[in-house]
Amino acid sequence: MADPTYRDQQWEQRYDPQIEDVNRLCDTLAESKPGSAVPYIDPIHDVDGCKIVSLFSNPGASLPSGFVSFENDDPSSIRMAGIYEAVGLRPDAFMPWNAHPWYLPEGKERALTMDQISDGVKPLLTFLQQVPRASALVAHGADAHKAARRLMKLENRAIAKRGFKIYEVRSPGERAFKGTPANQELWLKDIQSAYTDAMGRAGIRARQSIQ
C-alpha cells in the first residue's frame, strides 16, 4: 500500500463485485455515526471465497491507505502478512474485520471500552452475513476476544448452522509482541496453529510459498 499506483488501483476497485457488499457496509456504518469514518476492506479479498475471518481490535485513528489490509506497512500488518504466508492462506479465503470498525479519536488507541465493543457486535454480525461461507473466526487480542464472545452469546441461528468456531489468539501489535525472541516465536506458532486448524476444518488447501 506504500506504492501510490497500487493504492489508487485498490481504491478504484473498492466496489468491485468480490468486495462490494462489505465495503457498502463500511459506508453505511460511517453514515450511522455522523462525523465518523470506517476504512474499507482491501479488494484483494472475496466475499464468496471467505471461509475464515481475522478479527482485530480497531483501525486506530487513521490508516494512510484507507483500507484494512495486510498490505499496509505498519508492524502489525507486516506480522500478519508473514503469518498468512507461513500457513499458505490465500487472500480470497479469509477477510479481516475490526471489533470496533470506526476510526478512533486521535490519541485514543488503547483498549476498547465495553460500550465500543458493544457498538461493534451488531456490525460484526452483519459483516458475517456478507460472508456466508465463513465458519471460523480468529480473534486477535483481548478486545477481539470480548467481541467474539458477545457475538456467540447472540445465539444467531445463521451463525450456529455453520458450526462456527472461535479461536482466541494474541494480537499482532507491537505491545503484545514485546518479549524475548523465543517467546515471540512461540506466540507466532500459536497463531499459525489456529489458522492451520481453521483451514483444515474449512477444507482450505494451503497455497504453496514462492521460494
Describe the structure.
The structure is a single chain. Helix 2 (20-32) packs antiparallel against helix 4 (114-130) and helix 4 (114-130) crosses helix 5. The chain is of the alpha/beta class and 211 residues long. The protein is globular. The model has no long low-confidence stretch (mean pLDDT 93). It has helices at residues 4-12, 20-32, 75-87, 114-130, 142-153, 157-161, 181-202, and strands spanning 40-41, 52-56, 67-68, 94-98, 136-140, 165-169. The protein contains 7 helices and 6 strands; from the N terminus they run H-H-E-E-E-H-E-H-E-H-H-E-H. The strands form 2 sheets. Strands 4-2-5-6 form a 4-stranded parallel beta sheet, with helices on both faces. A two-stranded parallel sheet has the order 1-3. It has one domain: Uracil-DNA Glycosylase, subunit E (3-Layer(aba) Sandwich).
Report the sheet-strand fraction.
Answer: 5-15%
Q: Structural class of the helices, strands and pairings?
A: alpha/beta
Based on CA inertia axes, which overall geometry fits? globular
Number of strands: 6
Number of helices: 7
Q: Describe the strand arrangement of the main beta sheet, using strand numbers.
A: 4-2-5-6
Which segments are poorly predicted (pLDDT under 50) over 5 or more consecutive residues? none
Question: Would you state the CATH class?
Answer: Alpha Beta
CATH superfamily: Uracil-DNA glycosylase-like domain
What's the end-to-end separation, in Å? 23 Å
From N to C, what is the helix and strand string? HHEEEHEHEHHEH
Over all CA atoms, what is the radius of gyration? 16 Å
Question: And the CATH topology?
Answer: Uracil-DNA Glycosylase, subunit E
* Sheet having the most strands: 4 strands, parallel
Q: Would you tell me the overall average pLDDT?
A: 93
Protein name: Uracil-DNA glycosylase
Organism: Arthrobacter bussei
